[in-house]
Amino acid sequence: MTSIKQELRHASKATREDVFGKVITYCCVAVIAVLVISILYFIASRGIATFTVNHVSLWSFISQTSWNPGLLDAHGQPQIGALAMMVTSFTVTILAAIIATPFALAVALYMTEIAPNRGARILQPVIELLVGIPSVVYGFIGLTVVVPYIRHLFGGTGMGILAGTLVLFVMILPTVTTLSVDALNALPGYLRDASLALGATRWQTIHKVLLRAATPRLLTAVIFGMARAFGEALAVQMVIGNAVLMPHGLVTPTATLTSQLTTQIGNTVMGTLPNNALWSLALVLLVMSLIFNLLIRFIGKRGQLS
Amino acid sequence: MSMLTTENLHLYYGQKEALKGIDLAFEAQTMTALVGPSGCGKSTLLRCFNRMNDQVSNAKITGSIWFDRENVNGPAISLVTLRQKIGMVFQQPNPFPFSVYDNVAYGLRLAHSLPKAVIDERVETALKQAAVWDEVKDHLTENAMGFSGGQQQRICIARLLAVLPKVILLDEPTSALDPISSAKIEATLMQLKRDYTIIIVTHNLQQAARISDRTVFMLDGNVIESGPTQTLFMTPENQQTSDYLNGKFG
Ligand SMILES: Nc1ncnc2c1ncn2[C@@H]1O[C@H](COP(=O)(O)OP(=O)(O)OP(=O)(O)O)[C@@H](O)[C@H]1O
Ligand SMILES: [Mg+2]
């Protein structure tokens, strides 16, 4: 009797390992949490400084199009209007998503429904390859192939939203495709059987049942792609033209939030207005990625309910 | 005349012969139970009737199945019509993750565009026939996945009744359900067999005895014995049938 009691009260090796594992896990989580919070704090405090320390009005930041943080205008005000960059960022993001989605869906359907074995065997490595190509290479191809072609077709420099969109379209295609494949694979097989057994053709089954049932996750896939497009800097910077001007069409040079950040951050001094103004752009990017995240969560929740 | 007849039906999965020459006739307005140990080919046989084995790439069928004088395996047959005339209920309730209404209307909307009033009426009739109308009538726009397993299964039955089938195939429709839900499904089927030809696969011999008119005992791809349920259960002719019914194997 006593021996059982003793044994019961004695912490076993497994229990000690359990505690040890827990401690390590919590430590790692704590480190990451501190890291994330400090990054958020840093960007936010710098980004807000433009408005609190340098007294730029928030309204002119989001509604004006002239961007020249180093100079004062006729009224002695610094020219900090980010509207042109925001418009360009959103336009390339949305256009890239609009072009990429049908291709991604077609490839995903081919890989999951139409030729699950052959399709996946050939296309899976292709997609992985596309993911693995560094963004500078995409930008380089854009610069040497896409831009001259656009210049040839439309005149001008060839740089601008169209070039940026085309480069981003190829860059987000693998992301959207992979997530769409996951979305379709996650559908229970019985949906397919149920639809076929009611006399539906394969195509009817795909578009009336499978795509519909997978809609929340497919939307999530598209938003992930948009988040990637919105945040991509290097490749876009190489083909967008880098002139902070309101775009007057798809082929005029302009700049995105990210391209402006990467081209200018080295030219400013920490703590000055031009530097703070760039941090404000970074803050906009951060807020947008937060919004993308919330959107994904929201849609995910809705998907579970329905 | 029989509603469904099989003649020397063989089915091969690659090299494996899963059905070894089945000759059966299924009468209209009767419920036939298919019983037999696991792996004897009950589901395979059932899936021959609505050509669901077409989905299995290595399945090869010889012999014929006559559905109202039409060869089910013939080249002229329209799969869409065949599957609307011969509906299937699966072991796991498998409603679409849509509203109850959209589930039941699904088959109706596939073939032609019917006026909304007609669809409304057919949906209501089907849900009533499946004895689930009272439970869902105030929730037609709610997601079918939110209902209990038994309700889902009856929604699935309504879904196939809406396209006006002649034959209903059921593959262990109650084995994933609790006893009360099972009893409700059984009651529903007892109602339906007045108007439809029903073939039900079941591992529950009491269930077969309770609700079926005829029973077919299969073993290893062969039909060992078939006949009126009463006769087969009380006085089986074959020793293997008797052993199975007495729980000696299976
Ligand atoms: N897609 C397939 N490919 C190869 N063999 C298969 C396939 N489907 C079924 N089989 C085999 O065919 C035989 C009959 O299977 P079937 O599913 O018809 O049995 P069953 O009587 O329905 O069994 P259970 O009572 O377990 O559902 C089994 O031996 C099974 O392993
Ligand atoms: Mg089976």
UniProtKB/TrEMBL annotation, chain A:
Q: Does the keyword Cell membrane apply?
A: yes
Would the keyword Phosphoprotein turn up in this protein's UniProt record?
no
One GO term (biological process): phosphate ion transport
- Which is one Gene Ontology cellular component term of this protein? plasma membrane
Q: Record's Pfam families?
A: BPD_transp_1 (PF00528)
Which residues belong to any copy of the ABC transmembrane type-1 domain? 86-296
Q: What is its main location?
A: membrane
Transmembrane stretches, start-end: 23-44, 80-110, 122-147, 153-173, 218-240, 277-296
* Compartments, as annotated in UniProt: Cell membrane
What's a single GO MF annotation on this record? phosphate transmembrane transporter activity
* Keywords assigned by UniProt, alphabetized: Cell membrane, Membrane, Phosphate transport, Transmembrane, Transmembrane helix, Transport
The record ties this protein, via InterPro entries, to:
MetI-like, MetI-like_sf, Phosphate_PstC, Phosphate_Transport_Permease
| Membrane topology field | Multi-pass membrane protein
Q: What does this protein do?
A: Part of the binding-protein-dependent transport system for phosphate; probably responsible for the translocation of the substrate across the membrane.
What family, per the record? Belongs to the binding-protein-dependent transport system permease family. CysTW subfamily.
Give the protein's recorded name.
Phosphate transport system permease protein
Species the sequence originates in? Secundilactobacillus kimchicus JCM 15530
Lineage, top ranks: Bacteria, Bacillati, Bacillota, Bacilli, Lactobacillales
